[in-house]
């Protein structure tokens, strides 16, 4: 019999994460590396794995993540979003706790594009009086 896997896709800034959940003892690997190695800062680990804490399912599932794009902060947000969406496939009963914690909403904030004639998106040229 095939083992059941649950999948969720999460996005944040330019990062995209594909999260796979399967019943297990709580192993977490991101891009084939242990989570402690991939995210050196504990804050990024806590942020990425928050849906497991909210639903009290840490240690019940093995988490396999493929993430690309952006920096580590954006990737942790993408993993968080994908993990929350994957947990919805496990049980619809998690929806209320995940929704109230704000974990199902995609954070749509992106970097504003640079404009021509300016140094950045809004920063103009420095004025010199003399």
What would the keywords be for this entry?
32% helix, elongated, 5 strands, alpha+beta
What does this entry look like structurally?
- By secondary structure, this protein is α+β, with helices and mostly antiparallel strands.
- The protein has a single domain, classed as Ribosomal Protein S5, domain 2 (2-Layer Sandwich).
- It is 32% helix and 23% strand.
- The protein has five helices and five strands, in the order ββββαααβαα.
- The protein has helices spanning 35-38, 42-48, 50-54, 72-90, 95-100; strands at residues 5-12, 15-23, 28-30, 33-34, 61-68.
- It has a five-stranded mixed sheet.
- A hairpin with a 2-residue loop joins strand 1 (5-12) and strand 2 (15-23).
- Helix 2 packs parallel to helix 4.
- The longest helix is centred in the middle third of the chain and has 19 residues, at 72-90.
- The radius of gyration is 18 Å and the shape is elongated.
- The model has no long low-confidence stretch (mean pLDDT 94).
């Amino acid at each position: 019999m095939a083992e059941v896997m649950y999948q969720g896709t999460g996005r944040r800034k330019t990062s995209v994460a594909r999260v796979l959940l399967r019943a297990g003892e709580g192993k977490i690997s991101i891009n084939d590396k242990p989570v402690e190695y991939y995210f050196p800062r504990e804050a990024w680990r806590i942020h990425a794995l928050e849906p497991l804490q909210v639903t009290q399912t840490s240690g019940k599932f093995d988490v396999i993540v493929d993430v690309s794009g952006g920096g580590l902060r954006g990737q942790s947000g993408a993993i968080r979003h994908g993990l929350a969406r994957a947990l919805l496939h496990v049980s619809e009963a998690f929806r209320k706790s995940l929704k109230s914690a704000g974990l199902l909403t995609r954070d749509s904030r992106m970097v504003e594009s640079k404009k021509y004639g300016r140094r950045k998106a809004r920063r103009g040229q420095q004025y010199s009086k003399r």
